[in-house]
Amino acid sequence: MINNLQSTTTLSNGVKMPRFGLGVFKVEEGPELVNAVKFAIKYGYRSIDTASIYGNEEGVGQAIREGIGEAGISREDLFVTSKVWNSDLGYESTIEAYETSLKKLGLDYLDLYLIHWPVEGKYKEAWRALETLYKEGRVKAIGVSNFHVHHLEDLMKDAEIKPMINQVEYHPRLTQKEVHTFCQEHGIQLEAWSPLMQGQLLDQPVIQEIGQKYMKSAAQVILRWDLQNGVITIPKSTKEHRIIENASIFDFELTNDEMEQLNNLNQNLRVGPDPDNFDF
Length: 280
Description:
Elements: E1 8-10, E2 16-18, E3 22-23, H1 31-42, E4 47-49, H2 57-71, E5 79-84, H3 91-105, E6 110-115, H4 123-135, E7 139-145, H5 149-158, E8 165-169, H6 177-185, E9 189-193, H7 205-214, H8 218-228, E10 232-233, H9 240-246, H10 256-263
Parallel strand pairs: 3-4, 4-5, 5-6, 6-7, 7-8, 8-9, 9-10
Antiparallel strand pairs: 1-2
Helix pairs in contact: 1-2, 2-3, 3-4, 7-8
């Protein structure tokens, strides 16, 4: 049983990554962002996920510096992720984008750097840059985001290093079974963004019924389902009570039947773009 907020999974290169973290998508720079990240660190979160396109790396960096000081932990205790945006995909431009993200965050290295979207004709050069950064020891792990199976197959034909992570939209209405199976077969860890489908699943009767059994919210049930499916999850919240609640999922375990009930909610529905039809 995954029984605490510091539970980790070991990536294909031996790096340990927390199974649970905080995402900061669409959280603007300012006190709300800084406080959210600090709340998360205070309550035991050890993984923070941002991206250059979010426009909040400076605030995340400030919160990390303040948060680790207040929590009495070190930078090495945190796992920090950022992503290179589509307009920066290319060998030199990706390396420059990495430098810019580091500077904004005020960090010496990232734990994980991802290609944000599989822009046709660009992601291979970007991946070559990530391999360089990784081989130079400037980033602990590298991966991709929003890659379908055919993107992964295409990338891996020429890659020296396999992606360690594929971060995708993942929730009970979009279980990404083909992608998940492919990643498991190739030692690529799946990670979920928008695990709560932007709140659209919280009124689902099956999920609420399971929650009542364990005295848990619908959100907690879904996040637990993620973890038991072997998927890292990074729910977003800026509210202190919600940050605490989201992480209060380590004192119960869903049965095989309950897991299957949630799996069966899949309708291949997205709240974000389809990577094959995204207007880059």
